[in-house]
Queue: 4 jobs
Job 1
Amino acid sequence: MQSLIVVLAAYLIGSLSFAVIVSRAMGMADPRTYGSGNPGATNVLRSGNKKAALLTLLGDAAKGLIAVLFASLLVGLWQIPQPHAVIAAASLAVAVGHMWPVFFRFKGGKGVATAGGILLALDWRCGLITLGVWLILAKGFKISSVAALVAAVIAPILTWYFIPQREYLYAVLVISVLLIARHHENIRKLLQGSESRISGRDESRS
């Protein structure tokens, strides 16, 4: 029962869609009603409000970080059996919450920023390297879907290398697969050569 509470709490934290929350707080249109319709930082950036986009990015990353750290705290306090398995499940739950948030009719983002926060919580080396790769590719190609997809591929490899607990590897693998699946439209556009750049109508961020 305590394990279920930890996982459910992580899902509910993930269900806090900062793209929608920040937009409402700043009197902006719902990001699900314009651009790509994706409630993430890149779509919020289309509004022209860079501050709102940055707050969305930070909020989505922070909830991934906080959910996993909170799960780790509860697992320790409650002395839950198989702690690594529970933390891994909570890591997956916060990502699922972001992608399918119960508070926003299950219409969520793609999970890039939240996945970054999760990785930072699991192992700071995995998180920093993955985020570094994302930043380098995003800056170099100016297409955040390319950066996101490459980051999704290398994240499980880094997890396997740095983290001995296999439960975390399985969780990161599933998150990466879900993230890639959420980018199916971006992949189609990349193959067609019609994917937009970050400075234009890009649709790939969280």
Note: Residues 2-192 form one domain.
Job 2
Amino acid sequence: MSPAPPPDPEVVVSTTGLTRRFGPKTAVDTVDLTITRGEIFGFLGPNGSGKTTMMRMLTGLLIPSEGRARVLGVDLPGKPEPLKQKIGYMTQSFSHYRDLTVTENLDFAARIYGLPRRRRKARIETLLQRYDLEAQAHQIAGSMSGGQRQKLALAAAVLHEPQLLFLDEPTSAVDPETRRQFWARLFDLVDGGTTIIVSTHFMDEAERCHRIAILETGIKRIEGAPPDLMAGLKANVIEVTGDQLRHAKEVLDADAAVLSSAQIGARLRVLVRKDQADPETHVAALLHDAGPVTCHRTRANLEDVFVAATGGGAKRPAEAAA
């Protein structure tokens, strides 16, 4: 019997059949993943889809019910202690002490990671400058804005220069401009060699990832690079404009060839099965009694992929988003 091949040094995370149950509820269901060095990998899904549970298992905070994972060369389940100095974890609630100043929070985090005094001081000064927190260095964290607290939480998570950074819905409480600036900082980290795993329910945020996995009720429905997933959608996207859109939606939703329809402002966005030869003509024919309408084909976006892959497209065939 030949020996097993050596681990691929470019693979940062790999899982096989990773499963977690809480009593009768299966939060994560037999998920297989491979995440490579230097990429931003996103878990996209609604609340309750298993995103946070996946992260907690990959950080060693939660023991899988079944299956295995290997994270930065550490086998899980097992002893996760070797991971502590290699990973950073930024939770949804921005983990810091609200009654301490910014500098005190960072100093406390650096001591937890065991940074020696000289390195601790240098890293805090560097991060205050890098994340535009110098003016808030002596400000009580609880008095800061959401965007400032987000920067503090990120600075604390990367103090020890982790190889792998976990971000659990890190921008859910900030405005779009702050979110954009935050992602610029993430790509700076990637350029420096950090691998990032992020969970989100924002489509525009998921599109920024190098690759994503869409989760629904703990099941990995689809995985890939966002452009590839959009290009490979096995459905046609038709936009409909007209005066009776609510009635038009009812008509469309009753048709077997229509996977889903959603009103977006003054138009309907309709997913039609790929095997429908002329989707525009088909949709127009369905709506002949719905008043004047116009129908035209348009490019798929990530929300279309998400709808086709999850319960949002309840009538979808199993392969619709593949």
Note: The CA atoms of residues 149 and 188 lie 19 Å apart.
Job 3
Amino acid sequence: MKKKRINKRFIIVICLIMLSYFIVTAISIYSYSEYDNLTKADVVIVLGAAVWGEEPSPVFKARIDHGIWLYKNGYVSKIIFTGGQGKEQETAESIVAKKYAEKNMIPSKDILIETKSKITEQNISYAKQIVQDNGLDSSIIVSDPLHMKRAMLMAEDYGLEAYSSPTPTSRYKTWKSKGKFLLREVYYYIGYKIYRIIN
């Protein structure tokens, strides 16, 4: 009986520790989402998101628009669009982004793309290769606010000199949509940290 009580208490303690870590991580991700390290750099890396046919989804459009704003306001001289061809997508995300940027008066010579990535880590790794191949150094990473902490951790792991600049506008505006996004990010962030330890 005494052993059962000890085991029950041990399980409760472990659950409380896990819950506390989850809550602390969520607070950390939310707090980081409000941080914009706006500074000059060589290039802006716009992380991919879904496209609808030949048009960027509202989420991706907000990211592209912010990248364009950084370019037009002199913070960077190049733009890297990331994102491959997802399921049921006819065109790679980065190609759609490039066409959209060109329509918004961004010179083709200043746009670089990769068309292979499927997930955030691949966005970062392929972008790092483009940075190296083009003799660039510092970069600004653009994504949705709640996505930034995980993206910046990956950028650090890949040795990128990167600065955070989340989109000032986001489709995730209501507490319900933000809550779903935050829960997903906590899950993926913790998963990535476990992955780093294992590997």
Note: Helices lie at 2-32, 58-72, 93-103, 120-133, 148-157, 175-198.
Job 4
Amino acid sequence: MRAVRTATSTYKMAVQLAQLPEVERLSPTCIRILGGNPGKFTLQGTNTYLLGTGPNRLLIDTGEGKPHWISVLKRTLAEEKAHITHALLTHWHHDHVSGVQDLLSISPDTKVFKNQPESGQLDITDGQKFEVEGATLTAVHTPGHTVDHMVFLLAEEDAMFTADNVLGHGTAVFEDLGTYLNSLEKMKPLFKGRAYPGHGPVLGDGPAKIAEYIHHRRQREEQVIQTLKSNKGDVSAAGAEDDAWDVMELVKIIYQDVPDTLHPAAAGGVIQVLRKLEKEGKVSLEDGRWRLRGRRSPL
């Protein structure tokens, strides 16, 4: 699954994407190599990161298997006179892991690590450290976008590689909103510097962007609650006012500023909010329609 954006952010991003070079040294220890897979879901392409200052390097993510990516990576390694000892996969989505076999074709001795590893891979655990000259990474398990999602702290810069939990443009989707928010809260106090995202440009103040993400999600949740509280004005067949809403009715109110063609995409985020509220006992689902608990059904 790709790092899909919300409807609002997808709508705004059409004219906001900055041009990024296919290879860019972002700091003395970090080189970003784009995955060669730009698109509306992957932005400028998947960010892969080559880390270290000596002959041994770490690699974060491998793109989605585009021939251009492995060609650029091979050229960069030759220029750096370096090789990759460890490849760290942030999560299972194909645009982050599908270049593994290409990597092993040019670097068969590279050890590949992933939380919940697949055949031939090694496990990443919460708190595990990876170190080469110039780069010390600590893995942090941050599920929500996916159950296996990991971020990495870079000690030398007090920075974080945020993968798809925090992006350089827009906002990310998630498998479980409550778990995702917990992970964002976990990430925010762990560093003070940059965020290197899975897609899009570097974020200068990573914790501030995470706080912005948390605020945005809480705001969406409040919008759903307030809409459920509002008076629909509908009357049921029994003659009583019906205060139950289906998902698309909620979307049309909450996403009034977004074209109708993007409402189906927005519905996914609204459903996630409703499921979180349902787990918390704040809303109920009856016959495909949602209402706040404590509000009476029509007679």
Note: Residues 92 and 102 are 16 Å apart (CA to CA).
